[in-house]
Amino acid sequence: MLLNLRKKLKESFFSVFPIVMIVLAISLLLGNIPGPLFVKFIISAFLLFLGIGLFSLGADQSMMPIGQNIASTLTKKKKVWLLLLACLLMGFIITIAEPDLAVLANQIPSINKWVFICVVGIGIGICFVLGAIRILFGIPIAYLLTAGYVLIFTFLAFVPQDFWAVSFDASGVTTGAISVPFIMSFCLGISAIRGGNSNEEDSFGLVAICSMGPILSVLLLGMLSSSINITQTTTTITTSTYATIPSDFLLELLHSMQEIAIVMIPIIVVFFIFQFSMIHLPKTQIIKICIGLVYTYVGIVLFMTGVNVGFSQLGSLLGEYLTLSKYSWIIYPIAFVLGYVIVCAEPAVHVLTEQVADISGNTISKKVLRTSFSIGVAISLTLAVIRAVFQLNILYFLLPMYVVALGLSFYNSKLFTAVGFDAGGIASGPMSATFLLPFITGITTAHGGNIMYGAFGTVALIATTPIVVIQILGAIAKYAKTKRQAPMLSQPTDTISIIEYDYE
């Protein structure tokens, strides 16, 4: 346990540390950051470091086993309707518990936070069911993804533009440390029903299908609620003195404890219902899962406290101050560096590079993939700054990316396509919604732009990059493999002796 905690804290440290160093450098450059706000940022950074570490450890020890055991039990029951009902229910419950979704919902004006979270949760639940049906009936993932995104881009014509960027951002923040382990474990259990040789291919892709749910559900909310007007808002920086810092953290801590308890209780209740009715795990394992749930709860509370008190506020302020300073040109290289170092620090990226190296037969090395990821996300964040400055439509960026990715999905193998689209939410880790989106918001505000057009969509850009990168690398790997096999296929047939037997 102690060894795992140390490992998770190390991963968390390398996720937060690059941001802290860059903020320190920017603060020295500007020299006008309020002292109390900077102190709150340092304390918040420590809370994020501790919170992400505990949260990750707790998810591994509780969320993953809960998902695996429920999926395994339902698989053994051989009742498809029960499995699909569980997918719908668990998809909703795990989504509303995602901390990054709460961070995003807090930044959206004119829409009730819980309405937004519940709508996104319903979208995930429905697409969870569709993904399970795909596995059960062996539907090619490229067909389903193409149909889904064609529907998404068709919906855009009937939805106010205010909802466009927000809907894609919602997709990027819902693939986190709670939802992904649940979805992946359910995916393995569902694919076991079919059996055969398709298990490996079917074990990927469910995350990708679920990622379409938030986009469709938020767009549908915009279509049905034409009376909702997402108005422009300005970032409110809480003024405080050094003396009020402890009370600021204490009040937010108590508020976060209450809110996180509300979203964690349904997961616990559902688990114990399954435990007493179907699973019947031994007492030692139940104790271990309960301890993991405590780690998860404490981790999310610390994470949300740090985000709301100091992290997001300073991110927005730095973006605004840099844009209005005499060094305004520097926002572009800073965005590039931020994108490059943040994706390098994401633990999930390292896991993904191992997967891609394996399925490509090491045709694509881990070093090449990590470098491609870093450059891709760096370019995406730079494009996000350009979009914020010039108030460009999000579709100018997302539409070409999806056309390339979906087009290559018909050329690449099913497995590569599934892994590539699953990777969409990996790059948009904890720092995207907590710091990068507020940073772009500050830049948009400084230029007098509307944050709904200029800032929201940043998470979506970051999340889309890995999809395109892996699809392109997959096409390269397939071409290289075909080229290696070509000489073997072109050998003259007279070198092969064919012996025919007479059975008469």
| Global outline | globular
Summed up, the domain count is: 1
Major beta-sheet overview = none
Radius of gyration: 24 Å
Mean pLDDT over the full residue set: 82
Tell me the strand percentage band: under 5%
Fraction of residues in H or I helices? over 70%
Helix and strand composition category: mainly alpha
H and E string: HHHHHHHHHHHHHHHHHHHH
> How many beta-strand segments?
0
pLDDT < 50 stretches: 492-504
Distance between the termini: 71 Å
Tally of contiguous helical segments: 20
Q: How does this model look, in words?
A:
- With 504 residues, the chain is mainly alpha-helical.
- The chain has one domain (2-233, 244-477).
- The chain has 20 helices and no strands.
- The chain has helices spanning 2-30, 35-77, 80-96, 99-106, 113-137, 141-155, 162-173, 179-194, 199-202, 206-224, 245-279, 283-324, 331-345, 347-359, 366-390, 395-409, 414-422, 430-446, 451-454, 458-489.
- Helix 1 runs antiparallel to helix 13 (331-345), helix 6 packs parallel to helix 10 (206-224) and helix 15 packs parallel to helix 18 (430-446).
- The radius of gyration is 24 Å and the shape is globular.
- The model is unreliable at 492-504 (pLDDT under 50).
List keywords for this structure.
504 residues, mainly alpha, 20 helices, 78% helix, 0% strand, disordered C terminus
Topology readout:
Blueprint: H1 2-30, H2 35-77, H3 80-96, H4 99-106, H5 113-137, H6 141-155, H7 162-173, H8 179-194, H9 199-202, H10 206-224, H11 245-279, H12 283-324, H13 331-345, H14 347-359, H15 366-390, H16 395-409, H17 414-422, H18 430-446, H19 451-454, H20 458-489
Helix pairs in contact: 1-2, 1-12, 1-13, 2-8, 2-11, 2-12, 3-5, 3-8, 4-5, 5-8, 5-10, 6-10, 6-16, 7-10, 7-20, 10-17, 11-12, 12-18, 13-15, 14-15, 15-18, 15-20, 16-20, 17-20
